[in-house]
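User: Is it possible to get a 3D structure for a protein together with its bound compound? The compound here is adenosine-5'-triphosphate. I've pasted both below.
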Amino acid sequence: MTTTGPTPSTDFIRAIILDDLKTNKYGGRVHTRFPPEPNGYLHIGHAKSICLNFGIARDFKGLCNLRFDDTNPSKEEVEYVDSIMEDVRWLGFDWADRLYYASDYFEQIYQWAVQMISAGKAYVCDLTADEVREYRGTLTEPGRNSPYRDRSISENRDLFERMRAGEFPDGSRTLRAKIDMASPNLNLRDPVMYRILHASHHRTGDQWCIYPTYDFTHGQSDSIERITHSICTLEFENHRPLYDWYLRELGIYAPQQIEFARLNLTYTVMSKRRLLELVKEGFVNGWDDPRMPTICGLRRRGYTPEAIRNFCARIGVAKMDSVVDIGLLEHCLREDLNKRAQRVMGVLRPLRLVVDNYPEGQVEQMEAVNNPEDAGMGTRKVPFARTLYIEQDDFREIPPKKYHRLTPGQEVRLRYAYLVRCTSVVKDSNSGEVAEVHCTYDPATRGGNTPDGRKVKGTIHWVSADHAAAAEVRLYDHLFTKPDPDEVAPGQDYKANLNPSSLERLSRCWLEPSLKDAAPGSRYQLERLGYFCVDPDSKPGSPVLNRTVSLVDTWAKIEKKGAGGGGRGARG
Ligand code: ATP
Ligand code: MG
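Assistant: Yes, that's possible. Here is the predicted structure of the complex:
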């Protein structure tokens, strides 16, 4: 075990790298990259890739670059570039001075395209996009050669230059690699290398009106940066022969592409196209809506980088597609918050409780433990007075069986304060609902102790009505009602499974006074209610809290039973 992290051979990719180090394949170097396309915000799936690429660099004392794969000007924006850098940093990773853009290589990539033309390995094709598709054939039928395939090298050079010069409209021509229209791998059937696109690029402006495809950019960028292991998701497995072909034909340094299974999560959609749709069509309140699986959404929800990194370590990497139970992600979050979150009291659905025999105007400062998991976090004072708020759920006039909370005649412990016994209720004359509960306290039970040893089963939380801070609290449920959002009736799409009650806003909550000016981003456990994070919508004196996660850990139960989730992410 090294001191820098997990042992470097815990997954098949690290095993490959270990082997390459033994055979000195890259002169002992390990150099990875994380290559996002700046066309959306990063999500938890990207976090898996980030942890993998940067984690490998860390474990093998190598390097990891951040490279924007910005070859598609029509969908890319600076806003996304900035957010991606912020999110990678927040996750705890550092690319030092190795920030790159594929667009910085456009001139070199163009020169390589010319080299391919000169070698008779590329040609300008005048088929339309639809015709290219039609000529490509299918998995069972070979494709047909383009009628433009045998253009002379000089004509190809001339046309390609004029494509660059802007002489032709969008879509009228492409540059294609001359490989094999009968290849069983469709990616090798004369793939497009360049397309005409008169669009402004977020970095190169109007300098270019032809743009290289992902396939003709990615390997070359890896080569320029002297990446050793180019790690990507499984859908690129069929592109690897093309990746290798371009680098071989160009005769330039070739990294090794290795594919792994992308992360899928239950109750979650992960593609950027869908996340963009949810944002654009107003199903959520922006990319950082706390219900989104984006890094910024998780951050606003109250996730810690440590919890996300730990989750990524636990799911491991494999070559088999699978769906991870979102319960595991939440479990990792609870584990982390349990250690770090200060405990406080707050009431979400308030019910007035009046302690009739407690002197009017008297206030006592009760000592409360900040974190039972960490004595070093100390204690704080919470004011106790005659009129309190308790949770509506903590009182029942007619209690169900085994109800240990407050009910007429029954004694209950007010956390850190006193034992109280319910004496009467006041009802709303219109609705008939309980509006206020009255009780008496036993002064001999200060701090919640029972000097006579009597047993009291229930302990409930409370706040002092005169001292509490008014707050809004937002409760969240999964964004989708089904574990697989794609499980829909014919004619519907995943949006049919959006959960109409994924957000519940409670606008009349009360928090203990220490939270009055809590800083956005700070995290707490509200005793018995869950973990919460202060939202940036908060104003001084009126906090807004997001419930990060409840306290009920279904995953821990599964794990205890030894079921381990049945292949749903319990590896590693
Ligand atoms: P999406 O499918 O969400 O649109 P993408 O693959 O188009 O994602 P990129 O910006 O190209 O997004 O991704 C950057 C890197 O993150 C790539 O190496 C990609 O393979 C990886 N990645 C994307 N989604 C996942 C995922 N769900 N799990 C693991 N890695 C992912
Ligand atoms: Mg992509």
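The longest strand covers residues 419-427. The chain is about 25% helix and 20% strand.
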